[in-house]
Amino acid sequence: MTEDTPTPKTDGGTDSVASDDVALDPWGSSTIEDYRKLFEQFGIEEFDAAAVPDPHYLMRRGAIFGHREYGRVVEAMVNDEPFAALSGFMPTGDPHIGHKLVFDELIWHQQQGGEVYGLIADMEAHSARGMSWDEIDEHARSYLLSLIALGFDVEDGELYRQSDNRTLQDLAFEIGSTTNFSEFEAIYGFGGETNVSHMQSVVTQLADILYPQLDEPMPTVIPVGPDQDPHVRFARDAAARMRYFKVTEAFASFELDDEERELFSALYDTMTADDGVDTDDLRCEDAAEYLSEREFAAAGVDADPATHESLIEKLENGGKEPIRPRVRFLDRNANAAAFDALIEEIPGEKRRYEAHIDSFDLDREAAGEIAREVEIAHDGYGFERPSSIYHRFMTGLTGGKMSSSVPASHISLLDDPEDGYDKVKSAATGGRATAEEQRELGGQPDECPVYELYAYLLTEADDEFAARVYEECAEGERLCGGCKEQAAELMQEFLAEHQEKREEAKEVLAGVDIDLDSDRRGLGGQEGEDAV
């Protein structure tokens, strides 16, 4: 696209920010009106495709709009270091074109050299959606056939279902020992009526997210829709709390919480920047006096009054203890042998306390590497916090959200090609009321489900084609009738080709070590709604 070419909005929102908060519910049916609210409310970072080598077209076109620490995965990709990607599919219905976004993201990461995992979230489907095991078996097979048909290499990746993976279940059990009901209540709104199996399925999903790191800790990305972010955040917390050691910065023998530490770091930088300050003579009581004399908000730190006061109190209690920057190893879950081994591995000047070790000659990155090596050598996991990327929900063909439970809103990857053609021809558009108005004012591709089909599926990697459709629509040169006819024909061709490849994939799937004819028994229930 040139500088003069109109480009699709990549934030998914309007020019004004909605006043209402966004609710992220992994099992809900809510839509997201303004994706920028996710940056503000949940700390999701805006995705920059320019930072990725040879980015996938979903990245280039803004379908992938946000991330959490994806830079660590990109760095591993660039340096030819190990990294992984994992995502799961809840088999509650036929796979449709919305699911294809995740299929494509997994396949692209596999092509970039990643260890890639595709899982069937059958325990979630049974506990949260009430699906029978027979239904789950049928839909699981269908999801995997489409994934393979689209290019997933079963020889270079792993496919599994939650219920049959004993290693996964063992990991879930260990994660469960670090979680409590209040977290489920705070994150998901679970209450006394929530069944225990539903909670168990959540812990299993946390284990899924960390599963790629069981043999070797590595940067791992979870490609999902933004409604799954609660699982990602919970898993990032679980990864940290299962570590033997927490590595932080420190300045004195006593411990600070995260907010106090951030404020103290900014305070120290400000104090030592003053002319005439001898850092060797700084004492805790000096810092307390310095901090109490001013409304302190340095280096972008906006500390709340409680943090301000608690830090002053701790510094005053520190008295004349010298302030010496250091790296601290906090004992979280380490056994005695690991704690002793860590002391031996830390080079240079160090000091041991009852529950932590301070190093005066290491930077934080080197300290983190030592802590992980010691942990793994003493039967720990050494998990890195998982990263994530988030794609926009595809708009339903009838407007609103695309839902598996509303057949007219989506095109199944199993739809007869003629039916796919007809659904596109009947789809809502972002066009004007009349052809004359369209030519005069231009269409509204940012609000058009049919344009999304071009951008996310039908033009594949052809950016010029996607840009041309957008330009012609926005400038009034393209009318909806002809646009839908072209899209319908391309959809018909795609479905016909995909279903041929699905037939070929049957033989490949037959050779995969995964049980798709389970003999499990269980109770069925009311199936819920599934947004992609």
Automatic annotation (TrEMBL):
Keyword Nucleotide-binding: yes
Protein name, entry field: Tryptophan--tRNA ligase
Domain of life: Archaea
HAMAP family (UniProt xref): Trp_tRNA_synth_A
Region (Disordered): 1-23
Motif 'HIGH' region, chain ranges: 91-99
Keyword presence, Chloroplast: no
One GO BP annotation of this record: tryptophanyl-tRNA aminoacylation
GO molecular function: ATP binding; tryptophan-tRNA ligase activity
Regions of compositional bias (Low complexity) in chain numbering: 1-15
Gene name in the database record: trpS
EC identifiers of the protein: 6.1.1.2
Primary residence: cytoplasm
Purpose: Catalyzes the attachment of tryptophan to tRNA(Trp).
Chain coiled-coil ranges: 484-515
UniProt-annotated location(s): Cytoplasm
GO cellular component: a single term: cytoplasm
Keywords: Aminoacyl-tRNA synthetase, ATP-binding, Coiled coil, Cytoplasm, Ligase, Nucleotide-binding, Protein biosynthesis
Catalytic reaction equation(s): tRNA(Trp) + L-tryptophan + ATP = L-tryptophyl-tRNA(Trp) + AMP + diphosphate + H(+)
Species of provenance: Halolamina salifodinae
Recorded family membership: Belongs to the class-I aminoacyl-tRNA synthetase family.
Motif segment ('KMSKS' region): 401-405
First-tier enzyme category under EC: ligase
